[in-house]
Amino acid sequence: MTNNNMYFIANWKMYGNLSSITTLKSIKIFSKTRKLKKTKIIYCPPYTLLRPFVDTLKSSTIKVGAQNCHHQTDFGSFTGSINAKMIKSLGCSYVILGHSENRREGENDKIINLKIKSAIKENLKVIFCVGETLKEKRKNKTKIVLKKQILNGLKNISKFNNIIIAYEPVWSIGSGKIPASKDLDNIVIFVKSLLRKRSRLKNIKILYGGSVNTKNIKELSKIRSINGFLIGGASQKTKNFIDIIKKTIN
Ligand code: PGA
Q1: Is 2 within a domain?
Q2: From residue 192, how far is each of 53, 165, 166 by CA, in Å?
């Protein structure tokens, strides 16, 4: 069985400059492979590279997204901020929200909820990140934390078609550690059933993120409940990113 209906999202964080554009050539060619027809490849570079990425990738099926946005939809006096409308107007289709690196800087569930609403209003697809810290995991609180983050983040939202959840345990991001397959499967199934109850939607996509690399992808891709991957460090080298996609869909 092939795994070709999957999401592969490259989260470049605060890395990259204009010269990074040249690395997109090989993935553009790769994305035209027949086998990848249903596969969704999305690049989320820093704000400064959104437009160059959109321009470079426009003749391909690869989409571009931002890594965050301000919660206010209208223009306003928010120095240093970018809103969903601006992101959309650049030709982007996605935005990552609720990433733990932003929660760490003080972003809370309430703000994330407003951000999700503003992104949906602008017709952006939301990659909504949730995940527990090591301390919470050790106290067996993973499911409680996820439930709280998800229910608060999605409060008063009824349109779920444009929302994808990325389960990213905080202790796994950039650490080289990933959850045991059995635990991961269990958590993804838990999140899916929570969302099914909350939204009555059957096909919400759940991605996994945290230290995904060319070595552990074979194991991770065997977990059938997972609909794709949010990839940080390993996505910055196009060769590795392509390798991860190849190993998943084959
Ligand atoms: P990582 O990051 O793959 O480098 O662990 C994932 C993320 O933060 O989205």
Answers
A1: no
A2: 32, 9, 11
Tell whether the model's pLDDT for residue 1 goes beyond 70. no
- Asked whether 165 and 150 are in contact (CB, 8 A), the reply is yes
CATH of the domain at 209: 3.20.20.70
What are the pLDDT digits (tens) for 82-117? 999 999 999 999 999 999 999 999 999 999 999 999
Q: Which of 99, 107, 122, 132 is catalytic?
A: 99
| Domain region containing 87 | 7-249
| CA 17-170-167 angle, 5° bins | 90
- Would you say the pTM of this structure is higher than 0.90? yes
The domain total for the chain is 1
Using CB distances shorter than 6 Å, the residues near ligand 1 are 11, 168, 173-174, 209-212, 230-234
